[in-house]
């Protein structure tokens, strides 16, 4: 392993409009950028971190600074798995190492994975709001191939919200993300309604960790008879997978949770072997952070990678059919090679 030079920076861009979910609203989204340089070659990565776990880009930066010496002494992706725990810090570094390897080999990350990327149907988020406002959002974005409807607001309006969106975007495929905010009673009442309204998937209806209680496990099993369930907050790393079997029919893999593309590939492969559907998700993050997830989402059952579209000027585009086009490897995937002086 060659000596590396590490560069870190935090940016805080404004979102194109407020992003509202059950845990709060935000108008800006900071993220951490990482660059690793070895000789003429550089690799880049980025991450925002998982807010509900107390992570922030500044905290990610501090985690990396604490092991700067070990990193700059030379490290590869397998050694990184032992150096840092799962999370955004490792995800950003992992992305930079993947790209550095690509630059050094004169290739791309996609090619090294044996992929020829194609456009994917990435969900577009209908943010949590009043039923009327969510219906208006759905009418505006109902042309998109897949909508992800954020719920978890005032309990007395949840059914009205999900019905309003379904009626306002009848042609789009739709999934629900309850952001771990429902009770077992809500789940029992709303799961059949969601199914009747044509929603395909219900993501994380109950709080993470509630699966350890027998009555909550039973509520998940009962709800899954109406609509497939997807684990998000309950699936952080590969170690969580077995405990979720029989309760969920899909898993949401996010690089910021599991610690990067290297770990995510392992989760995807084992989840598939166990018969689970694959949902590739993301945090609000720029294309630099989302590009590895776009590769992971090739062939996935569902994807929610709209993060870059919440920022102005990101180098991402939709096809005429509303699919998320492959991200140019110059943005992330090919690395950078400095010309000889």
From TrEMBL:
Listed InterPro entries: DgoD-like (IPR034593), Dipeptide_epimerase (IPR034603), Enolase-like_C_sf (IPR036849), Enolase-like_N (IPR029017), Enolase_C-like (IPR029065), Mandelate_racemase_C (IPR013342), Mandelate_racemase_N_dom (IPR013341)
Pfam families: MR_MLE_C, MR_MLE_N
This protein's record includes keyword Acyltransferase: no
Cofactor(s) for this UniProt protein: Mg(2+)
Gene3D superfamilies the record matches: Enolase-like C-terminal domain, Enolase-like, N-terminal domain
Source organism superkingdom: Bacteria
Keywords: Isomerase, Magnesium, Metal-binding
EC annotation from Swiss-Prot or TrEMBL: 5.1.1.-
Domain Mandelate racemase/muconate lactonizing enzyme C-terminal residue range list: 131-223
Cofactor note: Binds 1 Mg(2+) ion per subunit.
Record flagged with keyword ATP-binding: no
Enzyme class: isomerase
Family as reported in the entry's similarity comment: Belongs to the mandelate racemase/muconate lactonizing enzyme family.
UniProt name for this protein: Dipeptide epimerase
């Amino acid at each position: 392993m060659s000596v590396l030079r590490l560069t870190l920076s935090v940016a805080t861009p404004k979102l194109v409009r407020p992003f509202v979910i059950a845990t709060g609203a935000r108008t800006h989204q900071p993220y951490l950028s990482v660059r690793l340089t070895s000789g003429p070659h550089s690799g880049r990565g980025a991450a925002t971190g998982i807010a509900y776990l107390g992570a922030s880009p500044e905290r990610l930066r501090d985690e990396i600074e604490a092991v700067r010496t070990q990193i700059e002494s030379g490290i590869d992706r397998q050694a990184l798995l032992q150096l840092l725990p799962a999370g955004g810090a490792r995800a950003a570094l992992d992305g930079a190492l993947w790209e550095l390897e690509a630059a050094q080999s004169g290739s791309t990350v996609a090619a090294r994975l044996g992929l020829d990327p194609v456009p994917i149907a990435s969900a577009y988020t209908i943010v949590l709001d009043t039923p009327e406002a969510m219906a208006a959002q759905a009418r505006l974005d109902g042309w998109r191939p897949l909508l992800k409807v954020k719920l978890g607001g005032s309990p007395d309006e949840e059914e009205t919200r999900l019905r309003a969106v379904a009626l306002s975007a009848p042609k789009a495929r739709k999934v629900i993300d309850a952001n771990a905010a429902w009770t077992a009673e809500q789940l029992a009442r709303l799961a059949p309604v969601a199914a009747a309204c044509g929603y395909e998937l219900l993501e994380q209806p109950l709080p993470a960790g509630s699966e350890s209680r027998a009555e909550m496990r039973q509520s998940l099993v009962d709800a899954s008879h109406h609509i497939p369930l997807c684990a998000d907050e309950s699936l952080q790393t590969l170690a969580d997978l077995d405990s979720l079997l029989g309760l969920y029919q899909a898993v949401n893999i996010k690089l910021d949770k599991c610690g990067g593309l290297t770990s995510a590939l392992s989760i995807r492969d084992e989840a598939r072997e166990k018969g689970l559907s694959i949902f590739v998700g993301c945090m609000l993050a720029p294309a630099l952070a989302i590009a590895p997830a776009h590769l992971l989402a090739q062939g996935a059952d569902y994807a929610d990678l709209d993060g870059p579209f919440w920022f102005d000027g990101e180098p991402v585009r939709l096809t005429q059919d509303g699919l998320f086009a492959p991200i140019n490897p110059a943005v992330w995937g090919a690395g950078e090679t400095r010309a000889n002086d």
